[in-house]
Design a protein that fits this description.
transmembrane helix, transmembrane, Rhopdopsin 7-helix transmembrane proteins, HCARs, two-stranded antiparallel sheet, GPCR_Rhodpsn, mainly alpha, GPCR_Rhodpsn_7TM
């Protein structure tokens, strides 16, 4: 049976819901833009990430910033009762950016977790992740490897409205959408399994260590736990909702689909909060970044409170003298 491919399945099933979601995205943009700009400033001009072995963290910041830039366009479409742009170029460009930035965030977050895993569980062995951190070109390679995952959004047969499960004139549509679904689920499920494994092994290692070694191990636990929080809030819920949506759509339950679509889109909007949560990962990964950020942007009385709370955390400091001033600098972790 021939289906009219010009039929628009991307109208918002409930305009009130999507107007609310649009305001949530505007809020994420208003909070995320200055936050990520300030983090970029710290990494580039104050922290000098290329000297402090924080290249992977910097790449997460770049991915978050590019995500924030896309939010006003998505909010505009939701405000006008559309789940996506009616302009195919704009639609595919936004999907390309969202696929690429989501993949980059996940890839570099998992790389950080693996680095902590090898440093703790396989201490003394050659840590290939630490070797990668010393090579800036590796980050470029990771971005380039992520590009093929965005191919489904660029193909001519791709439907901007995530139309897997609908009937079309040619089988190419179904192949393209199936490929996109495989990419969507594997880039969330497989990294989450790796993350849980790393967390379990690190916690197990922590229980076996003596008191003198536990400070570093606790920091490693906090790193992987912060990444788990980001995954649990931003990525897993939308993956589960996506699976439910595909099930309902394949069963052709149109009334239920209208509801599930709203839930799925709401959880996708929630997933954009990773640009607000990732700074927690930066602070746990490197206490030096946290100290520099606080000393740059926080008022003096807040600096004293926050920095004094870190004095008992086991961080090692070096005291240097500059004229009549004494400056305490934290030793940055590798």
């Amino acid at each position: 049976m021939t289906i009219n491919l010009t039929a628009d399945h991307c109208k918002a099933p409930n305009e009130v819901t999507y107007k609310i979601l649009s305001w949530l995205m505007i809020g994420e943009f208003v909070l995320g833009l200055p936050l990520n700009l300030s983090v970029l400033y710290i990494f580039i001009f104050r922290f000098k990430f290329w000297k402090n072995k924080s290249i992977f963290l910097f790449n997460i910041v770049v991915a978050d910033f590019l995500l924030v830039v896309c939010l006003p366009a998505k909010a505009y479409h939701y405000q006008h009762g559309l789940r996506r742009s009616e302009n195919n170029v704009v639609c595919k460009t936004l999907l390309f950016m969202l696929f690429l930035n989501r993949g980059a965030s996940i890839a570099f977050l998992i790389t950080l977790s693996l680095d902590r895993y090898f440093n703790v569980v396989h201490l003394g062995r050659r840590n290939f992740v630490k070797v990668l951190k010393k090579t800036p070109q590796i980050s470029i390679i990771i971005w380039l490897l992520l590009l093929p995952l965005t191919i489904p959004t660029m193909l001519k047969t791709f439907e901007c409205c995530n139309s897997h499960g609908r009937k079309f004139e040619t089988p190419q549509h179904d192949v393209t959408d199936t490929l996109r679904e495989v990419v969507f689920f594997t880039q969330i499920i497989i990294p989450f399994i790796i993350l849980v494994y790393c967390t379990v092994r690190i916690v197990g290692r922590l229980r076996k260590k003596t008191v003198g070694e536990k400070t570093k191990l606790r920091r490693a636990v906090w790193v992987v736990m912060s990444v788990i929080v980001v995954f649990s809030i931003c990525f897993l819920p939308c993956a589960i909702a996506r699976a439910v949506l595909l099930t309902v759509r394949l069963a052709e339950w149109q009334a239920a689909e209208n509801i599930v679509v709203q839930v799925y889109d709401s959880l996708m909007v929630l997933s954009y909060t990773d640009c607000l949560l990732d700074p927690l990962v930066y602070c746990f990964c490197n206490s030096g970044f946290k100290d520099v950020y606080i000393s740059t942007f926080c008022p003096t009385f807040v600096q004293k409170r926050l920095l004094s709370s870190d004095s008992g955390s086991g961080a090692t400091t070096i005291t240097t003298t500059s004229g009549a001033r004494k400056i305490s600098l934290p030793i940055l972790e590798n």
